[in-house]
């Protein structure tokens, strides 16, 4: 065996555990889910000998269900607005905490807290904040203001709360990405800009922001793909009925109706959307690199 | 000499091995029991199984699962043609749907086992003349109300509507799209004398008309309420009244919210009297059970008065044998009063193969009427037509 072959084998062995993991726990179950989505159990009496495969009947049921379209709508609105909020807040935090201010380390730690706390704990705290007799309404009532029904199912306000809570939880990731990008900008550039008399907004807009664009792109790509998989936030805050999204719709069919086929159908649609989105991002990325190059 | 010694030694070892294997073969089987219990309930349940093992020499491995998971596991085992489960607990809701996965228990049970079990509950386990399920524990709903706001529990629909009008937005109902909603609706349908299979007879219409009026006072979050969330809302005083299962009693007691301010009372009576939906768990033996004979012994044991008294005393479960109520301590009788009063009015859900689809129709009808304010008669006629189609497509042999 040549040295080159030996090296290839070595690399293959290094990759093997990840490949096995991907095949057994991601790719295999994904194909099984697609198979279930394309299978129609013949009756309630499962296992039934005449289950039909392949069939698109589940998809036609799915597309005929208004609840599914509501879930699709929410699944588009929540990630878009959530990522926008995360970017704005994350950028502001990064700009603020990259300055040499007293207690910067403490503030940075505080900014990271929402992400450090386990998701379910964070969401239960948020539910206590926004519920009818929650902390926020207590504050309003002690200030002689009337309480607000923040989590009224299907209301726009509840949708806004879901966006806010989701953004709040993951803004620290965006903050970290942008902070590291800000800190990697050479100080010479700032000094040169200052000598030229550029400060404040002009400095940010014409010098800092263009240098941050690659980091912003990374944050947008990472977060928007992740944001489309939203599940726990609307489910914990409002239950399935409150603000359905595609994954909670699938969960509802799985857990409440034991209908694996329809659940897998919904998740297949979600997977296709995410795959398409990822492909689009990769394309855009390559195009951006080519232009830069 | 050495060779002879070695040969004797080998023969001796072989004999010892065969003896050990023979003893192993004579040992009683170890049963696997899939049971839908909470971790705390599993702990409380184990001593009963230890008693069974002591009496019979049969070990039992208790696997705590949710009902839906038990159903999936059993389906997988039956498809595979072999499995682990001997005895399973099935939600009353799945009885018709899982009938093809479990054994006919009639040849395995004796008259002594069946005598004394609540007749309605036992009947729910029978399909096409065969007995597929033995009731394990029963459950039905009662009304939980906050006595700080509601002095006397409403005993009739009229009184319930009065309370609802007095406290708009403070009434609870498990109105999320799931089986719990159907359980809430069916109580009203039966209280009005309706037939859930028809959906648009006079009783069904009366029930839906009442729910349309009552729905005006529901908390806006009711749309997403399930058993736990509606209880949480009651605890936080976001609602003052709702209907729920007996599991709420220990949870409210733990938080010192029962017997004060929350109280459990019977469900209000409708024009045709009281009614509640039968819930609970039923015991069955998998068609691919590795040890069916021993499994039948366990089922007989769990259906016995001894086991039922244990459930009442240690788990707060409703017994399948009325005689087992005597195990409930006197002070607890007051707390469970609402549930005990409802016992004679409990009815099983329609035992039809298409029940799951029918249940969804009821859920959709309720939501159309209560949340989307659609007219009652037209909506129920629309869904009744769909129910008739389901009935027409259903194989007759699956109907009891």
Structure description:
Helix content of chain A is 78%, strand content 0%. With 293 residues, chain A is mainly alpha-helical. Chain A has one domain (56-292): MetI-like (MetI-like fold, Orthogonal Bundle). In chain A, helix 7 (156-183) runs antiparallel to helix 10 (232-242) and helix 11 runs antiparallel to helix 12. Chain B is of the alpha/beta class and 400 residues long. Chain B has 2 domains: 30-139 and 279-341, 3-Layer(aba) Sandwich (D-Maltodextrin-Binding Protein, domain 2); 142-277 and 352-395, D-Maltodextrin-Binding Protein, domain 2. In chain B, 47% of the residues lie in helices and 13% in strands. Chain B contains 16 helices and 12 strands. Chain B has helices at residues 2-26, 39-56, 67-80, 111-114, 119-123, 157-166, 179-191, 202-215, 227-235, 248-254, 292-302, 305-315, 330-335, 337-342, 355-370, 376-393, and strands at residues 30-35, 59-64, 87-91, 126-127, 130-131, 134-139, 142-146, 241-244, 262-265, 276-277, 279-285, 346-347. In chain B, the strands form 4 sheets. Chain B has a 5-stranded mixed beta sheet. Chain B has a 3-stranded antiparallel beta sheet with strand order 8-7-9. In chain B, helix 2 (39-56) packs antiparallel against helix 12. The longest helix of chain B is centred in the N-terminal third of the chain and has 25 residues, at 2-26. The N and C termini of chain B lie far apart (77 Å). The model of chain B has no long low-confidence stretch (mean pLDDT 90).
